[in-house]
Design brief:
Number of helices: 2
Largest sheet: 5 strands, antiparallel
Strand order of the largest sheet: 1-2-3-5-4
Number of strands: 5
Distance between the termini: 39 Å
Helix content: 10-25%
Bound molecules: adenosine monophosphate
Length: 112
Amino acid sequence: MICIFCKIINGEIPCDKIYEDDKVICFNDISKKAPIHVLVVPKKHVENILECVGDDDIINDIVFAIDKVTQILNIKESGFRTVINTGKDGGQSVEHLHFHILAGKTFDESFG
Ligand code: AMP
C-alpha cells in the first residue's frame, strides 16, 4: 500500500508546501508541536534513517532542503531543532523517512 507521504509527493493528497525540488518536499506538519513545524521528506521512499547507510546523496539532499527552508522561514540564524524519529519506540508514526524542523519557541529541554 502506498504510504501517506508518497501520496503527498505524487499530489494525491494536498499539503501546505514550503519548499520543493526534484529530490525533497517540505511542508507544514498537520499537527504542529511548535509555532514552526515543517517536515522535510525525501521523494525516494526509504523507511527510516538506517536505510540511508551508504547513501550519501539522500542525506545531502535533505540538508540542502533544510538550508532552504530555514532561509525561507527566517530561522537560519535564530536556530531550530531537527528531530528524526525511528521505529515504534522512537515515536515514528509514518514509515517514510522525514526530518522535523521545529522553531518559533525556545527549546529549554536539552538532550545532554
Ligand atoms: P513521526 O511521528 O515522526 O513519524 O512524524 C509524522 C508526522 O507526520 C506527525 O508529526 C504528523 O502530524 C505528520 N503528518 C501526518 N499526516 C500528515 C499530513 N497529511 N500532512 C502533514 N503532516 C502529516
